[in-house]
């Protein structure tokens, strides 16, 4: 199989514009003759469904939640990037393009990233028009803040709930189309297989999660916008229902799965507190604008903190190690996520972690300096040039509350600690997955007619995603890319007519789904689905997590293979197929996670280098930074499914060519 990324010719700044000008179109009078299925209603799915319906196509949208508003995009907090240069600090489309390529450790596709930077400004205009309440400065202009891996302020935000507000904007556009009858919405439905007819994606098999009914749905094209696969680790910042099933099903039908080993560990999460925990909670990266990250310099001080004998305020300034500021002075606490996460792991591995859990994993995120700085500024602005210490502290806390109030409240409710008075405790956790279904420049997979958008594809972030770029990519794909590229594909379908669900391909796919369901329900095992999911998560975190090595990856492959055999023999799924059955839903998803976990370990094993979120211990420089091998590994690893034995998967390579950016060692110091 030869991978054709379909990247257009021409200068990087003109590729997308020239390409759009020559794409085929579907006339408005022909669009109602064409059906499109969109799986997932997060930012990518909702924006795609709303945009395509607005154009006149018939859209069927599917989500497993009870409402599109429940999509995991709602959990994104910190902001969305756009190259508008409102702060007049030197930002530009090129700089956003460059920062994204560099942040991804030179493992992203150049043309896709530049297109993302180009359309970023349009996203903000679109969302403002929808009424998204972005934060504004005193004069009414949209406000910006910084995120990791950049030296400009380009992140637009709505307090600490940006994802929620953006999703409500996209949902309002989607709801309008539902009301007009252009979108048929299927809540509480889960896609369980892709249907191909004559090699093209022509529909899906879905299960009604309330009644258990297996349904056939046809279309001329299918868009997968079902998010990422972080829950392969069991504990992650993802919603507990987030899964890889839609992406994995299209992979099993012939779509290549790209860069599965690229997983982002977010440095700013509440630490694990016990073995019965079901998920982890993200504290927004935006907090790193105002908080300083540190641990005690002395191991004995850290031990005293963990034992409750010392408070953070008891440790003198000279006895604190602000390790990100020390190691990366140019970026400080806003170093990229992969670098910041590994730095936290390093100091905790030295015994200087401050959280009293089993692993002693935790560092401080301290806002005391910001309270003093902003308190003085606020007092000065009020005409009080000699404020008391108490006035400074009060005003500083008020400033923090206005900027991050909901995040501070959330932290206090979870931990029962007041972050205005004592530093937050944070530690890295699995967050975003850069890998996903391989797509070309059109966002089309290797299956004609099967398009993949947002986090479900691999396209824009390389080996590490910069903060505030997930929302940007999801909305860029849905609002500004797919409407062009999918129309180009569908131009040949205006005479096709309705796709019948009575075709034998639909019957075959439905039978595959029913056989799998019956296999689980008739299994006489003795262990729960969560039992296996937790064990998979431990293998993945310990051996395919923040740090990897050859021996551990080989062990992971063996252990996951054994776990898979035990899973199918010993899993117990209560209930029946024709009812609401959450355990059956979990079993189907965990089966896919197990297979994906194997592929992730295989992908990490073959990539003999360190880059971004993929850190191989054997490949690091003298200072412990990633050591890339651009000569041998400057490629996208795209895996082809070769049957139930995942170890037989075949690797294909898409060479990454950099024409407009000079590859260099990534340096944030």
UniProtKB/TrEMBL annotation:
A Pfam family of this chain: Succ_DH_flav_C
Keywords (A to Z) from UniProt: Flavoprotein, Oxidoreductase
Domain Fumarate reductase/succinate dehydrogenase flavoprotein-like C-terminal: residue ranges: 533-668
Record's keyword annotation contains Flavoprotein: yes
Domain FAD-dependent oxidoreductase 2 FAD-binding: start-end pairs: 35-471
Domain of life: Bacteria
Residues annotated as transmembrane: none
Cofactor: FAD
NCBIfam families, per the entry: PRK07573.1, sdhA_Bsu
Protein name as catalogued: Succinate dehydrogenase
Natural source organism: Flavobacterium ammonificans
């Amino acid at each position: 199989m030869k991978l054709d990324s379909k990247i257009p010719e021409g200068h990087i700044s003109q590729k997308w514009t020239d390409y759009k000008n020559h794409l085929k179109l579907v006339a408005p009078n022909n669009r109602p003759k064409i059906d499109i299925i969109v799986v997932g209603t997060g930012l990518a799915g909702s924006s795609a469904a709303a945009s395509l319906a607005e154009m006149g196509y018939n859209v069927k949208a599917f989500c497993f939640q009870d409402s599109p508003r429940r999509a995991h995009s709602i959990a994104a907090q910190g902001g969305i990037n756009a190259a508008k240069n409102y702060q007049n600090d030197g930002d530009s489309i090129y700089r956003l393009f460059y920062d994204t390529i560099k942040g991804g450790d030179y493992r992203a596709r150049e043309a896709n990233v530049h297109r993302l930077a180009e359309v970023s400004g349009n996203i903000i205009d679109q969302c403002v028009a929808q009424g998204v309440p972005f934060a504004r400065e005193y004069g009414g202009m949209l406000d910006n803040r910084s995120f990791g891996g950049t030296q400009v302020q380009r992140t637009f935000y709505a307090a600490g709930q940006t994802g929620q507000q953006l999703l409500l904007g996209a949902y309002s556009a989607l709801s309008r189309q539902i009301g007009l009858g252009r979108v048929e919405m299927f809540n509480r439905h889960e896609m369980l297989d892709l249907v191909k007819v004559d090699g093209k994606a022509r529909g899906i098999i879905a299960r009604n999660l309330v009644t258990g009914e297996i349904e056939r749905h046809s279309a001329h094209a299918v868009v997968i916008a079902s998010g990422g696969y972080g829950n392969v680790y069991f504990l992650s910042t993802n919603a507990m229902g987030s899964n890889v099933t839609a992406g994995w099903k299209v992979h099993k039908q012939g779509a290549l799965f790209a860069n599965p080993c690229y997983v982002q560990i977010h440095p700013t999460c509440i630490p694990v507190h016990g073995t019965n925990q079901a998920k982890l909670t993200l504290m927004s990266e935006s907090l790193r604008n105002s908080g300083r990250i540190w641990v005690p310099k002395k191991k004995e001080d850290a031990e005293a903190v963990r034992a409750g004998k010392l408070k953070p305020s008891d440790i003198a300034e000279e006895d604190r190690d602000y390790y990100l500021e020390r190691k990366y002075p140019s970026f400080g606490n806003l170093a990229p996520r992969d670098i910041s996460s590994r730095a936290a792991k390093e100091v905790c591995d030295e015994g200087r972690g401050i959280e009293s859990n089993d692993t002693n994993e935790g560092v401080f995120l301290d806002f005391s300096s910001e309270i003093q700085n902003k308190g003085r500024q606020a007092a000065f602005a009020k005409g009080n040039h000699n404020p008391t210490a108490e006035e400074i502290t009060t005003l500083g806390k008020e400033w923090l509350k206005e900027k991050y109030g909901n995040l501070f409240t959330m932290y206090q409710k979870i931990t029962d600690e007041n972050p205005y008075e004592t530093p937050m405790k944070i530690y890295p956790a699995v967050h975003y997955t850069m890998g996903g279904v391989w797509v070309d420049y059109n966002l089309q997979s290797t299956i004609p007619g099967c398009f993949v958008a947002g986090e479900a594809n691999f396209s824009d972030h390389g080996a590490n995603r910069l903060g505030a770029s997930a929302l940007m990519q999801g909305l860029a794909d849905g609002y500004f890319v797919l409407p062009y590229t999918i129309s180009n594909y569908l131009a040949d379908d205006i005479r096709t007519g309705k796709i019948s669900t009575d075709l034998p391909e639909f019957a075959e796919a439905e039978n595959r789904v029913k056989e799998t369901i019956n296999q689980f329900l008739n299994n006489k095992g003795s262990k729960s689905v969560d039992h296996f999911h937790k064990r998979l998560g431990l293998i993945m975190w310990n051996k395919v997590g923040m740090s990897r090595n050859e021996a551990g990856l080989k062990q992971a492959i063996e252990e996951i293979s054994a776990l898979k055999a035990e899973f199918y023999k010993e899993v117990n799924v209560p209930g029946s197929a024709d009812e609401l059955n959450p355990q059956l839903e979990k079993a189907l998803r965990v089966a896919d996670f197990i297979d994906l976990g194997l592929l992730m370990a295989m992908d990490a094993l073959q990539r003999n280098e360190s880059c971004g979120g993929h850190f191989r211990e054997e490949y690091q420089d003298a200072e412990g930074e990633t050591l890339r091998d651009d000569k041998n590994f400057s490629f996208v690893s795209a895996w082809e499914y070769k049957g139930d034995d995942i170890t037989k998967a075949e690797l294909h390579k898409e060479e990454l060519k950099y024409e407009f950016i000079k590859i260099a060692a990534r340096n944030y110091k």
